[in-house]
Amino acid sequence: MCFSATVRAASARAVGPSAYVVRWSASFVPAKTRALYDLALNWPFGELEIEKRDILDKIGETSRFTYRALFRVLARAVREKKMRIPIAKIEGVSELTFDDDGKLTRHVERLTLVREMNAGRVRNKRIARDVLEYLDAWKPPGMSLERWDEIVEDKVDVYGVPGMRQLDVDGLEEDFADGGRIEDATALLGFFTLIILAFGFGFGSWYLARAHQQLELVRALDAAFDA
To answer: So where does this one cross the membrane (predicted)?
Structure first.
């Protein structure tokens, strides 16, 4: 997996002759928003001002995808030449110990969000997925993915976050009421119009056909969940 993050040290202090505690943060564009980020970098209507913003202030909010939110992002890009990209931000503390030759002999890393997840304070599944993506990148060399997943699941209460279980489907949460569906359908029509205007009727027709297939799948899932 290709993984790139910007790491910043917030503070560092000595706790012994050769021991230090470093507070840091790592920011990256998560896989879920990478396509949107690539679109911003290759915007067909000229250069965009890209605003990267983490979503840690929404840690206690249950998240769900809506087409209305996506349409607002794209409409703002057309009108104002600006696009806000949600990024992942992982904060942590590292305890480092060195020997007399300056060689690192001990490294203990604690992630703030892991502590928050285990305490049941993380309700936002996008943040939970960011944590998992970060941990995936830190899989020890030579360890199988299966074994690493077992360790992560044992140490991190992943499934305590709403929407993180295997059968949870984006857009089918309990609070996704009929009013929300109508609202999203209206925004979806606007989004399709924007796609056609931006990329031409041929591409728009192809996109509509693909989207129709996805909507049929959502309807089928709706029927299964309502049964």
So the answer is: 187-209
The overall pTM is greater than 0.85: no
Q: What is the identity of the amino acid at 34? A: R
CB 76 within 8 A of CB 118: no
> Phi first, then psi: what are they for 15, rounded to 5°?
-120, 10
Q: Where are the domains of the chain?
A: 6-166, 177-227
User: Which tens digits make up the pLDDT trace of 23-82?
Assistant: 999 999 998 888 888 888 988 888 999 999 999 999 998 877 677 777 788 888 888 999
